[in-house]
Amino acid sequence: MDRMRNARNIAIIVAIAAAVYLLPGGGHVASTFEAALWVAFGFGIAYFGLRMYREHRITLYSLGDRHRALLYGAVALGVFAYAARRRMWETGSGELLWFVLVGCVVYALVQVFRQSRSY
User: Fold this and answer.
1) Structural domains in the chain (count)
2) Do residues 51 and 85 both lie within one domain?
Protein backbone atom coordinates (compact mmCIF):
# COMPACT_ATOMS: atom_id res chain seq x y z
CA MET A 1 0.00 0.00 0.00
CA ASP A 2 2.84 2.42 0.83
CA ARG A 3 4.56 1.79 -2.49
CA MET A 4 1.42 2.78 -4.38
CA ARG A 5 1.04 5.90 -2.24
CA ASN A 6 4.68 6.87 -2.84
CA ALA A 7 4.33 6.27 -6.58
CA ARG A 8 1.15 8.38 -6.64
CA ASN A 9 2.86 11.23 -4.77
CA ILE A 10 5.83 11.15 -7.13
CA ALA A 11 3.48 11.15 -10.13
CA ILE A 12 1.68 14.20 -8.72
CA ILE A 13 4.96 16.07 -8.27
CA VAL A 14 6.08 15.17 -11.80
CA ALA A 15 2.72 16.30 -13.24
CA ILE A 16 2.94 19.65 -11.43
CA ALA A 17 6.53 20.14 -12.61
CA ALA A 18 5.54 19.31 -16.19
CA ALA A 19 2.64 21.76 -16.01
CA VAL A 20 4.91 24.52 -14.74
CA TYR A 21 7.44 23.81 -17.48
CA LEU A 22 5.07 23.31 -20.41
CA LEU A 23 2.09 25.62 -19.83
CA PRO A 24 2.44 29.28 -20.82
CA GLY A 25 2.65 31.45 -17.72
CA GLY A 26 3.51 28.46 -15.55
CA GLY A 27 6.58 30.22 -14.22
CA HIS A 28 4.45 33.10 -12.94
CA VAL A 29 2.10 30.68 -11.21
CA ALA A 30 5.06 28.91 -9.64
CA SER A 31 6.49 32.24 -8.45
CA THR A 32 3.14 33.20 -6.95
CA PHE A 33 2.87 29.85 -5.22
CA GLU A 34 6.41 30.20 -3.92
CA ALA A 35 5.60 33.65 -2.53
CA ALA A 36 2.50 32.26 -0.84
CA LEU A 37 4.57 29.50 0.73
CA TRP A 38 7.10 32.04 2.02
CA VAL A 39 4.29 34.11 3.55
CA ALA A 40 2.88 31.02 5.23
CA PHE A 41 6.35 30.14 6.50
CA GLY A 42 6.75 33.67 7.88
CA PHE A 43 3.42 33.43 9.66
CA GLY A 44 4.48 30.08 11.11
CA ILE A 45 7.71 31.56 12.45
CA ALA A 46 5.81 34.54 13.89
CA TYR A 47 3.30 32.23 15.57
CA PHE A 48 6.13 30.13 17.00
CA GLY A 49 7.78 33.28 18.37
CA LEU A 50 4.50 34.39 19.94
CA ARG A 51 4.04 30.98 21.55
CA MET A 52 7.57 31.02 22.94
CA TYR A 53 7.08 34.54 24.27
CA ARG A 54 3.86 33.57 26.02
CA GLU A 55 5.34 30.40 27.51
CA HIS A 56 8.52 32.11 28.76
CA ARG A 57 7.18 35.54 29.68
CA ILE A 58 8.15 35.23 33.35
CA THR A 59 11.69 34.22 32.46
CA LEU A 60 11.99 37.16 30.08
CA TYR A 61 10.76 39.65 32.66
CA SER A 62 13.12 38.20 35.27
CA LEU A 63 16.07 39.19 33.06
CA GLY A 64 15.57 42.85 33.84
CA ASP A 65 15.13 45.74 31.46
CA ARG A 66 18.75 45.96 30.36
CA HIS A 67 19.23 42.32 29.40
CA ARG A 68 15.75 42.02 27.92
CA ALA A 69 16.50 45.00 25.66
CA LEU A 70 19.84 43.38 24.81
CA LEU A 71 18.02 40.17 23.84
CA TYR A 72 15.45 41.94 21.67
CA GLY A 73 18.15 44.07 20.04
CA ALA A 74 20.25 40.99 19.30
CA VAL A 75 17.30 39.26 17.66
CA ALA A 76 16.52 42.36 15.58
CA LEU A 77 20.17 42.77 14.58
CA GLY A 78 20.34 39.08 13.67
CA VAL A 79 17.30 39.41 11.41
CA PHE A 80 18.83 42.50 9.80
CA ALA A 81 22.17 40.75 9.27
CA TYR A 82 20.43 37.77 7.69
CA ALA A 83 18.31 39.97 5.43
CA ALA A 84 21.26 42.12 4.34
CA ARG A 85 23.73 39.26 3.93
CA ARG A 86 23.62 39.01 0.16
CA ARG A 87 24.18 42.74 -0.46
CA MET A 88 26.77 43.08 2.30
CA TRP A 89 28.84 40.23 0.91
CA GLU A 90 29.26 42.02 -2.42
CA THR A 91 32.12 44.14 -1.04
CA GLY A 92 35.00 43.30 1.24
CA SER A 93 34.17 45.98 3.80
CA GLY A 94 30.52 44.93 3.79
CA GLU A 95 31.52 41.34 4.45
CA LEU A 96 33.72 42.44 7.34
CA LEU A 97 30.88 44.55 8.74
CA TRP A 98 28.53 41.57 8.43
CA PHE A 99 30.88 39.42 10.51
CA VAL A 100 31.17 42.21 13.10
CA LEU A 101 27.37 42.39 13.30
CA VAL A 102 27.05 38.64 13.72
CA GLY A 103 29.78 38.74 16.38
CA CYS A 104 27.81 41.43 18.24
CA VAL A 105 24.69 39.27 18.06
CA VAL A 106 26.52 36.24 19.45
CA TYR A 107 28.11 38.32 22.21
CA ALA A 108 24.76 39.81 23.22
CA LEU A 109 23.07 36.40 23.27
CA VAL A 110 25.87 34.95 25.41
CA GLN A 111 25.51 37.85 27.86
CA VAL A 112 21.76 37.30 28.11
CA PHE A 113 22.29 33.56 28.56
CA ARG A 114 24.81 34.14 31.33
CA GLN A 115 22.41 36.56 33.06
CA SER A 116 19.55 34.06 32.79
CA ARG A 117 21.65 31.35 34.49
CA SER A 118 22.87 33.55 37.37
CA TYR A 119 21.00 33.68 40.66
Assistant:
1) 2
2) no
